[in-house]
């Protein structure tokens, strides 16, 4: 399959240099806004040609969600593979990020955390694993705008086994604090001022600076921005780049190192179902900022 053949949102690439394979995960239900069937993945030795789809997760009997299976991110930790993914709970209808686990990158993944590790009373999504320089795992996630109006990016420490949250929740920033975002006008909430946070992802630039990708809207068009931690730590403070990195109706990105050494960004674009496709772009660090590579 080619990229143009793969309908996917929230793409996430796990490179496996030893095997010479890239594994592509994402929200893969044809209608991700409705009942969910699980997650599929793709494998390839380049970023143009893919094998699959491979069914890497199907919910077992009694699973706590049957709708809105979103944004799987897969990490290799201690010889196993852990998937952070968002589900809508059956018991209270709220979104939350849970952790699944498998022995291989193509699964099958099974529930690892007993339930979503985000707060039960919050509508939360897009949890992303970050390991600090002391080796402690954190989850960075969004407290959704639909619940609070001005969406937040939050962080919480996780237990060493990645099964539950530990310690105090910290709000890193609100969507309206970034200079590039504008209010999101939703037909469902026409009388409120909303700012969206989506898809946080942390990575180190070549200089060692800690950056975060996250998505929002500019004039109701999906866009991707970048913030930099002034302290170099997950708790920030986070300084936003004044302009969006990508503003052409695409976002929810992550960054990975290609086998040829390039630093690559992947996003989905356009932000319309069923037209969304994976898009890959080279990025670079210039003067303390992240930008698209100059070709």
From TrEMBL:
SUPFAM superfamilies linked: Arabinanase/levansucrase/invertase
Assigned keywords, A-Z: Carbohydrate metabolism, Glycosidase, Hydrolase, Polysaccharide degradation, Xylan degradation
Statement: the UniProt record of this protein carries the keyword Hydrolase: yes
Residues under site feature: Important for catalytic activity, responsible for pKa modulation of the active site Glu and correct orientation of both the proton donor and substrate: 126
GO MF annotations, alphabetized: hydrolase activity, hydrolyzing O-glycosyl compounds
InterPro entries, sorted: Glyco_hydro_43, Glyco_hydro_beta-prop_sf, Glycosyl_Hydrlase_43_Enz
Superkingdom per UniProt: Bacteria
UniProt record, GO biological process: xylan catabolic process
Matching PANTHER family: ENDO-1,4-BETA-XYLANASE, PUTATIVE (AFU_ORTHOLOGUE AFUA_2G04480)-RELATED
Homology family: Belongs to the glycosyl hydrolase 43 family.
Protein name (Swiss-Prot/TrEMBL): Family 43 glycosylhydrolase
Organism annotation: Cohnella zeiphila
């Amino acid at each position: 399959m080619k990229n143009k053949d793969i309908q996917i949102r929230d793409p996430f690439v796990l490179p496996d240099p030893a095997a010479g394979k890239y594994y592509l995960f994402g929200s893969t239900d044809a209608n991700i806004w409705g009942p969910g069937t699980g997650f599929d993945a793709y494998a390839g030795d380049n970023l143009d040609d893919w094998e699959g789809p491979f069914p890497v997760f199907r919910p077992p009997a009694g699973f706590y969600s049957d709708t809105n299976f979103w944004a799987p991110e897969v990490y290799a930790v201690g010889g196993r593979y852990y998937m952070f993914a968002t589900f809508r709970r059956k018991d209270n209808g709220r979104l939350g990020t849970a952790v699944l686990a498998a022995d291989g990158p193509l699964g099958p993944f099974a529930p690892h955390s007993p339930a979503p590790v985000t707060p039960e009373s919050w509508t939360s999504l897009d949890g992303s694993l970050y390991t600090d320089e002391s080796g402690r795992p954190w989850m960075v996630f969004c407290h959704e705008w639909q619940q609070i109006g001005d969406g937040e990016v939050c962080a919480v420490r996780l237990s060493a086994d990645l099964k539950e949250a530990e310690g105090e929740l910290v709000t890193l920033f609100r969507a309206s604090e970034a200079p590039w975002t504008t209010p999101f006008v939703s037909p469902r909430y026409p009388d409120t001022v909303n700012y969206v946070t989506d898809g946080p992802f942390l990575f180190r630039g070549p200089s060692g600076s800690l950056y975060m990708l996250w998505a929002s809207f500019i004039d109701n068009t999906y866009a991707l921005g970048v913030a930099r931690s002034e302290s170099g730590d997950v708790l920030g403070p986070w300084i936003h780049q004044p302009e969006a990195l990508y503003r052409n109706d695409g976002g929810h990105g992550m960054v990975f190192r290609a086998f040829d050494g390039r630093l690559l960004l992947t996003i989905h674009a356009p932000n319309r179902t069923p037209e969304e496709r994976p898009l890959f772009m080279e990025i670079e660090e210039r003067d303390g900022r992240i930008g698209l590579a100059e070709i």
